[in-house]
Amino acid sequence: MDTDQLIRSLAADNAHRAPRVGAVLTMALLVAAPLSILIFATFLGVRHDVMSAMRNPFFDMKFAVTLSLAIPAIIVSLHLSRPEALLRGWGWLLLLPVGLLAVAIGSEAMMAPAMPTTMRLMGKNSRVCLVAIPAMSLPLLAGALFGLRHGAPSRPALAGALAGLVSAGLAATLYASHCTDDSPLFVATWYTLATALVTAIGAAVGARVLRY
């Protein structure tokens, strides 16, 4: 076999390239999303006063916080899907929702309180929040882990935790349209606890299924 023929043979062998991790992750999340939406529609649904709630800046803030978690988590998880990729220089993206919550809590504190701090913190839906967000996250978490399996993360537990943040952020965005507790204190407490639970599950499962 001469050199030109060898090159053509090697090119033919590599004509089929594996899809990019980002494309697989996007498709997996899109496939999983209807199941999460079905859970939401069956057991929760959009709050009845959503039109008036949209005039409340703290209601809108919930979506800003959840999306500022989900979108950076997707970016960082794709970065970590490459072998030997490090979190250094990327972790600050995950602090965006923390900064938004800090600003929102400070803004609420400067306003005349409509209800006591304890009531704003506990709300009416804390138990529902702790169940609903993880439940809606599970299909999305499975999709995120499936997508990241097409990469080669050198730290599978960390990549799994990022998959948990992605799925929890997206599920919390759905839940925010149902939740009637709009106080940033409630979001900072109960949304965070629910997200931490999903993140822990993602890290535990990711340590196994993302190992290569």
TrEMBL record:
Positions of transmembrane segments: 21-43, 63-80, 92-110, 130-148, 157-176, 188-210
InterPro entries named in the record: NrsF
Domain of life: Bacteria
Extent of the signal sequence: none
Keywords: Membrane, Transmembrane, Transmembrane helix
Keyword Magnesium: no
UniProt-recorded name of the protein: DUF1109 domain-containing protein
